[in-house]
Amino acid sequence: MRLVNHPKMYDAESETLSPSWDQIQAGAELIIKNLSGLEFDKIVVVVRGGMVLSIIISHRLGIKNIDFYQVSRNSSDEPRSYSSVKIKKYPVIKKGEKILVVEDIVYKGESINSLIKKINTLGASTVAVCSLFMDEGFESDYLNKVGDNKINYITAYKCRADKWIRFPWENRIKGEIIGKYY
Fold it and tell me: Contact at 8 Å (CB) between 20 and 168?
């Protein structure tokens, strides 16, 4: 997978990153701008995280065909620490379809990598993957290991691995500070 854009670093003084609705919208607009000129038959959303971004993209690009890829994670209290990942639902993919994969946060790329492999097995192609956030280590440690270089990867923001991200549609965490990007 190849990174198409140069995402901004998003950070806050607290352990939690809490992007505002305006920052989510700005991130979505950046992603949509970078998707222009690419053709898709379907959006496959990694749920639940990618749902809000996928709806914004669906409306703006006029893509009405949406399906879901669902994984279940048993999480600990540590950011990005999962004891197990279980696939609960694969999307229905038709041979020859051009797929846009939408996720909220990409850490190591495990979810999207397993989805890309499934899409390829079914004879379709992943044209692009997009996310609002990318762990800063993903670019250097994992990006070239996920999919192939024909897949475009677009993300709005990079974040540090030790940060927990809480989106505006999620419950607030005590003591969180709204972040900034630079």
Answer: yes
Cα separation, 176 vs 110, whole angstroms: 28
Torsion of CA 138, 139, 140, 142, to 10 degrees: 50
Count how many residues are written for the chain.
182
Q: CB atoms < 10 A from the CB of 140, how many?
A: 8
Amino acid at 103: E
Please give the helix or strand (H or E) that residue 134 lies within, else none: strand 125-135
What letter does residue 15 receive in the DSSP assignment? S
Q: Where are the alpha helices (DSSP H) in 19-135?
A: 21-35, 51-61, 110-121
Q: Which domains does the chain have, with CATH numbers?
A: 2-181 (3.40.50.2020)
Count of helix runs (H) and strand runs (E) in the chain: 4, 11
What type of residue is 12?
A
Please list the ranges in the chain whose pLDDT falls under 50: 76-77, 182
Burial class (CB in 10 A: 0-12, 13-18, 19+), 4: middle
Cβ contacts of 179 within 8 Å, gap of 6 or more: 10, 11, 12, 17, 18, 19, 23
102-120 per-position pLDDT tens digit = 999 988 888 888 889 889 9
